[in-house]
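Thread: Phage gp6-like head-tail connector protein, structure

OP (GT): Posting the sequence first so everyone is looking at the same thing. Length is 165 residues per the record. Can we get the structure tokens written out before standup tomorrow? I want them in the notebook alongside the other entries.
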Amino acid sequence: MSVTVITPPEAIVSLEEAKRHLRVEHDSDDAYIEGLIGVATSAIDGPMGWLGRALGEQTLETEVSACTWRDDPSLPYPPLLAVESETPSQDGRKVRIRYRAGYPVVGEGDNRRSTVPAPIRQAVLLMVGDLYANRENGGPSASAAAVSMPVTADRLLQPFRVYFG
């Protein structure tokens, strides 16, 4: 089943959190660190990610058979937040589903926080730390597929991994 990202995911780890984790007190690497957060997150998040689930809140779209949708209205890349639209094909055999998935951000202003489980957020921080310390292994321009996962991050993520059969 093909799933398209319509609206990219919200960040699940802030620059400030990553800098605290890395023990970086200067601002000269901010853009680089933000890039590493993006690479680490994209390696595990959403349709292109290893984890098989949506992390930051995002809008996804897929097409399923009308019979399947009627009998089993489940969608890939949990957690499901809301179905935004259901558009049947002209022949009625398929349905295009647009939906919001991921862990929501709650709060306002300075009190905004991600509801992504702590082990997943920690795994992203570990991956950022690994990329920061080993710059020759990848950086903001690295593809998500090229990012190696530290063993501890893998162990933190395993209980959350969704396997499609």
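GT: Both are above now. Quick notes for whoever picks this up: DSSP finds five helices and six strands in the chain. The longest strand covers residues 80-88.
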